[in-house]
Structure formats: C-alpha cells, structure tokens
C-alpha cells in the first residue's frame, strides 16, 4: 500500500495510445523497444517501481504530439525476461496523476513531473457502486459482445465485484483512445460505469436510438 507521501514527484512515463490502466487493476505489457527496455531497467532500481501510463494526444494544426493531462501510475508487480532480451511485465495500478510538465534530460524515454492531489481515493480500498443495475448491465454487455464477436468467461464476469468488473471492461473493450481517456478521468466508479454504459450503447446503436438500456 502507498501513501501520498510515498509517491515521487517525477516518474517515467510510457505514452501508449489506447492503453488504459486504472487503480487496483492489472495491465500486462510486452516491452521490447530499446528506450523502454532502458526505462524498465531504471525503474526496477527505484524504491517505488512506478511507471506512468499516459496516452499521447495530437496538437491541432501540428504534427507534434503531447501527453494527455491525466494518466495512471502502475507498480511493476510481475516481471519475466525472454531469451531474446524482451520483457513481459505486469503493472498494478496505484494512482492517477496529473502531468505538470515533461522533464528533459539524458534518458531515451520520457519523464514527467506529476501531481497526485485530487486522486487520494485511488490509494484506498476498492470502490462499490451501490446503484449498479447489474442484471440490466449484463444483458447490455451480452448484446455488445455478440455484436463485436467477442467471447468471455461469463461465469467469472457475473461473480466479479463491481470495481473489478467495471474497470476490467473499461480496460479491455476495444474503445477509441478518447473514450479510454474519458473512462480514466471518471471521478468515481459510478461515473465510470455510466460512461461505460454510454459507450456500449453507442456501439450498439449504429444509428438506431432504440438501443438504450432502460
């Protein structure tokens, strides 16, 4: 468990479009680019072992890309190396953060100064969604999975706790980077669930406004 005082002011950041990490969730990553191999080597030498997952964003009228304002830091909790020098790692989400500025320097990977204020709830226990209409949600999810030709272990989904279910689906469903960012920035589990429902309904509608969960 981390306290706010344990969190560093500067972290390595991994700008990966479409990759979403949420607090207390796990994200597997395959690391093979030399700059990110260096990032991982340096991260493993730190006490906190944190990497910031943050999506890049386009700058209108420019080919330049900046970082989204909000990302989520994960601690390296799983690690294995392949025979050809690549890494398979698992990040466990610790807390969201706000990028205050990108940090220049001699590392081949990006680093950023970050602020953790406003996300103290991320460091606490799992959230509950007391108004979660689970039966209707599962019906909607079944229609969505069928429309996308996706398969899953429905037994595990039905038994999953609210946060695990909602966050896992937010991370795994094939939404756009912009939609993933909206899910990341949701201030509460209930808001994330409402955003997720909106995205599922939008994918199902296909121009037909009748496909709305009632």
From TrEMBL:
What InterPro entries has UniProt attached to this entry? Lon_prtase_N (IPR003111), Lon_prtase_N_sf (IPR046336), PUA-like_sf (IPR015947)
Domain called Lon N-terminal: residue spans:
11-204
Any one Pfam family here would be: LON_substr_bdg
Q: Which Gene3D superfamilies match?
A: LON domain-like
UniProt name for this protein:
LON peptidase substrate-binding domain-containing protein
At the highest ranks, the source species' classification is: Bacteria, Pseudomonadati, Pseudomonadota, Alphaproteobacteria, Rhodobacterales
């Amino acid at each position: 468990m981390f306290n706010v005082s344990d969190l560093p002011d500067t972290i390595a950041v991994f700008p990966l479009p479409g990759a979403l990490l949420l607090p207390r969730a796990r994200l597997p990553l395959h690391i093979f680019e030399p700059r990110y191999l260096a990032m991982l080597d340096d991260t493993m030498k730190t006490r906190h072992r944190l990497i910031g997952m943050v999506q890049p964003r386009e700058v209108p009228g420019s080919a330049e890309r900046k970082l989204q304002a909000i990302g989520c830091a994960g601690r390296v909790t799983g690690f294995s190396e392949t025979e050809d020098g690549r890494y398979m790692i698992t990040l466990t989400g610790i807390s969201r953060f706000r990028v205050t500025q990108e940090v220049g320097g001699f590392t081949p990977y990006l680093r950023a100064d970050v602020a953790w204020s406003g996300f103290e709830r991320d460091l606490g226990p799992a959230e509950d969604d007391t108004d979660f209409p689970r039966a209707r949600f599962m019906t909607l999810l079944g229609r969505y999975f069928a429309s996308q030709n996706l398969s899953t272990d429905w037994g595990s989904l039905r038994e999953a706790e609210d946060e695990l279910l909602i966050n896992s689906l937010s991370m795994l469903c094939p939404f756009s980077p912009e939609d993933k960012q909206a899910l990341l920035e949701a201030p509460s589990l209930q808001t994330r669930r409402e955003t997720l429902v909106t995205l599922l309904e939008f994918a199902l509608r296909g121009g037909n406004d009748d496909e709305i969960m009632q």
